[in-house]
Amino acid sequence: MATFYITPNLYPDNPHMFVVDVTQIVKIKGEPNTDFYRDYSGDHFWEVVIYTSGLDSDRSTLGPYWVDVIGSESDLTEVINGKLDEICSAIDWTKSPAFEDDLTEGTDTFPPYVYYQYPSPGQTNVPISSKIILRLREFLPAKGIDSSTVTMTIDGLSVIPDIYGNPYDTVFSYKPIPSA
Question: pTM for this structure?
Answer without folding.
Answer: 0.43
